[in-house]
């Protein structure tokens, strides 16, 4: 049992290998996929059309897993226990797992070969290309995926039609009443719904171009793009040809341990027929993968069917279904004006909740789904009015996250035993909320009700969070730490609250960080305007905006480094770091740098660091905008801006993204039309690609949006919270951020703009100011009683022609 | 007790430290908000660097403290003990303001008191 071979590399295969890796499987795992990339997130596939890249959707291959992409398996030799590949090669196995997925069902109607399907990134590429010259499009299939495809066509600028065989849309999730509410929602958006209709043929002109879809009643829907989304068929051909048992209507037959009729072969995901059912939802498929991984490693877990509950937001309307879709009794709440339809199914004794349907307001899904099969927690009419369900206490065994099968009890354990205090922590600890995210509101509720008092106190000196302190300082016009701690805190502060308050005062008032009492609040880096290193020396980073520098200035940096014997290194932010300076050398070094036209690079501060850039359209044959010019403008605009944590940025001159802007707090990528703005990226300990906030902005729009993004972050983030975690913890996420800073939903934009204007107007280089102030300069000594004496504990050795620190011990 | 004169009291800023070189020993001297003086060894035992005088001065449960600027371990200004790791401490030295208003330090280590 050393060699596992997995055929197919979709999300289910990914979950399998991830689980195997997590359980410490000791043998080799080889995944063979026919697509050109590893598994990717199909739940959020449609976001590909709005700018999310294929790389972002793609899952990371777990360490130690071998992948063979672009490779098709053509046969299984069960006797020899090996699979044969299209290129003639073979791959031997001890255990084989089939995760071949499914294929979209394309009905055999004339002209069907001209239609598209909606499943892979390549499918979306093809649809996008076809939509360029099209005016109208039609989607065949009014289910979950069909509506998503219709939404995609609409987003591509087409007038979209939906053809559904059943009398109403989403027949698997909603009943007739829900269907009619859904239909009016969708028609309100300008889409045409043709329910109860089939397909006679796809009509083409003489050139073979699609011109429309003919319904069986003879009427023609004009369209240049046709997409089939009429269900899936399991990809069981490999199993079939190798003699494994398959169901009469397709699907590889498996037992509760996901084993096929050959004990060395498992099947999981959409290709498997488990308990007579083929499952197409991510939750059950993940469970299958986990069961198979457990069985392969000697466990005994079993797949016993799955909750097919669904909650989604399609075309701006929430649709949810949970539990059964019928019952002895049902209670309906319908508000055609607001477009809300909610229905609960109840046992004949009116005691037990059996299931429910929601259109237009899915809140009962979150609050009531865990009660399916259990006693009704309140009267049905109470439960159906929105909000009434929010206060219910979930039983421990109630499932909270159906994608990852996490129960309320698991969440409570994580909170109580592992000390988790926030949603990101729960995601990391339990995986709940990491797939579709629909249970995140419930995670928040569980946190709030856990009784664990989540202290937002900054430290023992302040009971307020950083954001609250920011508001106190702003609203009450406080200008000193002493004023703040006397009126709103206790004690004399510490290394946590002092730099945080110093940063707030700097963000709001922008005076010199070493002025008066503020000097005593600063971490040593800010106190000496340089970065402390392990031996107590400091490094110096002059600002090089956009990474552009003249030969003369390069020479000055070289001369300074040589004259003071400093170690030099090029940083990741396109500047030059000079290491090994003693505190008493810093003013002399900076005198030389300031005289040559340099200013502080704020490498020591929780502030804007650099705006990297690629060389852009001035030189590059691919560049579409002047990325260097933009980077310099942004760096000069935001230099010196103190913030909850450091801020990094980059500007790329085209979609090739050579400046790596999407790993930055705010990244800008040039387009033919303008600039795309990405926010919340991070390298570091927990890498995160930045999210697309807005596209094709003009330069003015770009700058205004960044101004507000930065000021809103500075106002509301926690101490030392980078934009990436701030964005993830923001209630409502990216949509909320857009509402606040682009639609001014809180009415604060004028204030944010004014605050940024004030910052820009009052910026001054703090190193030049320090050199002009004998009082501040007097602090740059190693010994107060022997100003000229260098610190004898600082010793260097030589390595590769430069200095390196030597520690005493 | 031998006292070494360091500098004028006014040369010390509230809630900041300075370093003095006393017979080859590096002594970190701090002035609190209330105006009291404390002196500790300047060597940070966690990092091996002579940097404690450059830490942030504050309080923990009322006790005056300094936090190492390298890895933020907090030391009592009164006793020199590390409040984050009770097995570690730094020397604590007597410090006073002399008759001429100048700060004086003695290298005779203060015996640690209290629990």
TrEMBL record, chain A:
Q: Which GO BP terms apply?
A: energy derivation by oxidation of organic compounds; nitrate assimilation
Spell out the InterPro entries in the cross-references. BFD-like_2Fe2S-bd_dom (IPR007419), BFD-like_2Fe2S-bd_dom_sf (IPR041854), FAD/NAD-bd_sf (IPR036188), FAD/NAD-binding_dom (IPR023753), NasD-like (IPR052034), NiRdtase/SiRdtase_haem-b_fer (IPR005117), Nit/Sulf_reduc_fer-like_dom_sf (IPR036136), Nitri_red_NirB (IPR012744)
Q: Which PROSITE patterns match?
A: NIR_SIR (PS00365)
As recorded in UniProt, its EC number(s) are 1.8.7.1
Nitrite/sulphite reductase 4Fe-4S domain mapped to chain residues: 605-743
Can you quote the record's cofactor note?
A: Binds 1 siroheme per subunit.
Q: What class of enzyme is it?
A: oxidoreductase
Nitrite/Sulfite reductase ferredoxin-like domain residues are: 533-594
- Locate the residues binding siroheme: 658
The record places domain FAD/NAD(P)-binding at 3-272
Q: How does it assemble?
A: Homodimer which associates with NirD.
Q: What does this protein do?
A: Catalyzes the reduction of sulfite to sulfide, a step in the biosynthesis of sulfur-containing amino acids and cofactors.
Q: What is this protein called?
A: assimilatory sulfite reductase (ferredoxin)
From TrEMBL, chain B:
Query: Which residues does the UniProt record annotate as the domain Rieske?
Result: 4-104
Gene3D superfamilies to which the protein is assigned, alphabetical: Rieske [2Fe-2S] iron-sulphur domain
Query: Known PANTHER family for this protein?
Result: NITRITE REDUCTASE (NADH) SMALL SUBUNIT, PTHR40562
Origin organism of this chain? [Actinomadura] parvosata subsp. kistnae
* SUPFAM superfamilies reported for this sequence: ISP domain
Indicate the segments annotated as coiled coil, or none if absent. Answer: none
Protein name listed in UniProt:
Nitrite reductase small subunit
Q: Which NCBIfam families match?
A: nirD_assim_sml (TIGR02378)
An example Gene Ontology biological process? nitrate assimilation
Q: Does the keyword Endoplasmic reticulum apply?
A: no
Please give one Gene Ontology molecular function term for this protein.
Answer: 2 iron, 2 sulfur cluster binding
Q: Would I find Metal-binding among this entry's keywords?
A: yes
One Pfam family from the UniProt entry?
Rieske_2
Q: Which UniProt keywords apply?
A: 2Fe-2S, Iron, Iron-sulfur, Metal-binding, Nitrate assimilation, Oxidoreductase
The record's InterPro entries line, in alphabetical order, gives: NirD, Rieske-like_NirD, Rieske_2Fe-2S, Rieske_2Fe-2S_sf
């Amino acid at each position: 049992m050393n060699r596992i071979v997995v055929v197919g590399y979709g999300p289910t295969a990914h979950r399998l290998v991830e689980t195997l890796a997590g359980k410490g499987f000791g043998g080799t795992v080889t995944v063979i996929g026919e697509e050109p990339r590893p598994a990717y997130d199909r739940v959020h596939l449609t976001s590909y059309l709005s700018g999310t890249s294929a790389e972002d959707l793609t899952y990371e291959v777990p360490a130690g897993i071998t992948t063979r992409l672009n490779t098709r398996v053509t046969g299984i030799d069960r006797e020899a226990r090996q699979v044969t590949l299209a290129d003639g090669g073979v791959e031997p196995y001890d255990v084989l797992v089939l995760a071949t997925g499914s294929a979209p069902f394309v009905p055999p109607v004339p002209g069907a070969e001209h239609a598209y399907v909606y499943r892979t990134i390549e499918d979306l590429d093809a649809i996008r290309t076809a939509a360029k010259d099209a005016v109208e499009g039609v989607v065949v299939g009014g289910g979950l995926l069909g509506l998503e495809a219709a939404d995609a066509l609409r987003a591509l600028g087409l007038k979209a039609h939906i053809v559904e065989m059943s009398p109403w849309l989403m027949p698997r999730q909603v009943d007739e009443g829900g269907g009619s509410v859904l239909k009016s929602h969708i028609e309100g958006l300008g889409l045409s719904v043709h329910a109860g209709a089939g397909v006679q043929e796809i009509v083409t002109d003489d050139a073979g171009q699609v011109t429309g879809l003919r319904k069986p009643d003879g009427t023609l829907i004009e369209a240049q793009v046709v997409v089939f989304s009429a269900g899936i068929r399991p990809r069981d051909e490999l199993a079939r040809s190798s003699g494994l048992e398959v169901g009469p209507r397709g699907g590889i037959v498996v037992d509760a341990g996901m084993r096929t009729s050959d004990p060395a072969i498992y099947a999981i995901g959409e290709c498997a027929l488990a308990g007579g059912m083929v499952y197409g939802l991510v939750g059950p498929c993940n469970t299958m993968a986990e069961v198979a991984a457990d069985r392969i490693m000697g466990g005994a877990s079993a797949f016993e069917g799955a909750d097919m509950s669904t909650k989604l937001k399609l075309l701006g309307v929430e649709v949810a279904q949970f539990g059964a879709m019928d019952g002895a009794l049902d209670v309906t709440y319908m508000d055609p004006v607001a477009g809300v339809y909610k229905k609960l199914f109840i046992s004949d004794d009116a005691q037990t909740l059996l299931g429910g349907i929601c259109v237009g307001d899915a809140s009962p899904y979150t609050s009531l789904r865990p009660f399916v099969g259990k006693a009704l927690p309140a009267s049905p009419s109470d439960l159906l009015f929105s909000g009434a369900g929010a206060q219910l206490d979930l039983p421990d065994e109630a499932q909270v996250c159906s994608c990852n099968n996490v129960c309320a009890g698991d969440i409570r354990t994580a909170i109580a035993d592992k000390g988790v205090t926030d949603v990101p922590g729960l995601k990391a600890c339990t995986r709940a909320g990491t797939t579709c995210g629909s249970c995140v509101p419930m995670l928040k509720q569980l946190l709030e009700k856990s009784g664990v008092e989540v202290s937002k106190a900054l430290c023992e000196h302040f009971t307020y969070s950083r954001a609250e302190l920011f508001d106190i300082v702003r609203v009450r016009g406080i200008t000193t730490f002493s004023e703040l701690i006397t009126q709103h805190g206790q004690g004399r502060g510490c290394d946590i609250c002092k730099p945080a308050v110093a940063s707030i005062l700097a963000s709001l008032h922008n005076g010199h960080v070493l002025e008066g009492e503020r000097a005593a609040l600063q971490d040593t880096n800010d106190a000496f305007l340089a970065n402390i290193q392990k031996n107590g020396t400091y490094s110096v980073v002059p600002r090089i905006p956009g990474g552009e520098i003249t030969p003369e200035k390069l020479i000055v940096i070289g001369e300074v480094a040589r004259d003071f014997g400093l170690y030099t290194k090029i940083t990741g932010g396109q500047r030059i770091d000079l290491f090994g300076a003693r505190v008493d050398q810093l003013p002399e070094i900076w005198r030389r740098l300031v005289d040559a036209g340099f200013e502080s690079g704020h490498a020591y501060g929780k502030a804007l660091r650099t705006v990297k850039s690629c060389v852009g359209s001035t030189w590059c044959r691919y560049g579409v905008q002047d990325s260097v010019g933009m980077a310099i403008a942004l760096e000069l605009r935001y230099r010196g801006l103190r913030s909850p944590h450091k801020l990094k940025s980059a500007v790329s001159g085209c979609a090739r993204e050579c400046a790596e802007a999407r790993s930055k707090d705010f990244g800008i990528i040039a387009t033919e039309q303008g600039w795309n703005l990405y926010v919340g990226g991070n390298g570091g300990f927990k890498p995160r690609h930045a999210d697309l906030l807005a596209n094709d902005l003009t330069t003015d729009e770009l700058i205004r949006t960044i101004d507000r993004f930065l000021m809103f972050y500075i106002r509301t983030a926690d101490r030392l919270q980078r934009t990436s975690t701030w964005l993830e913890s923001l209630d409502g996420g990216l949509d909320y951020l857009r509402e606040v800073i682009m639609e001014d939903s809180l009415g604060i934009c004028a204030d944010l703009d004014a605050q940024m204007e004030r910052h820009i107007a009052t910026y001054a280089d703090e190193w030049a100011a320090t050199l002009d102030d004998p009082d501040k300069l007097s602090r740059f000594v190693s010994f107060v009683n022997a100003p000229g004496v260098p610190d004898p504990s600082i010793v260097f050795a030589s390595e590769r022609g430069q200095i390196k620190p030597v520690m005493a011990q | 007790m031998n006292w070494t004169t360091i500098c004028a009291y006014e040369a010390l800023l509230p809630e900041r430290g300075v370093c003095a070189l006393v017979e080859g020993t590096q002594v970190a001297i701090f002035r609190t908000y209330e105006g009291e003086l404390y002196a500790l060894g300047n060597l940070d035992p966690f990092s091996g660097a002579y940097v404690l005088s450059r830490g942030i001065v504050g309080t923990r449960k009322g006790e005056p403290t300094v936090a190492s600027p390298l890895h933020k371990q907090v030391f009592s200004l009164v006793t020199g003990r590390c409040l984050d790791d009770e097995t570690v401490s730094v020397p604590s030295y007597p410090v006073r303001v002399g008759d001429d208003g100048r700060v004086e330090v003695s290298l005779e280590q203060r015996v640690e008191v209290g629990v």
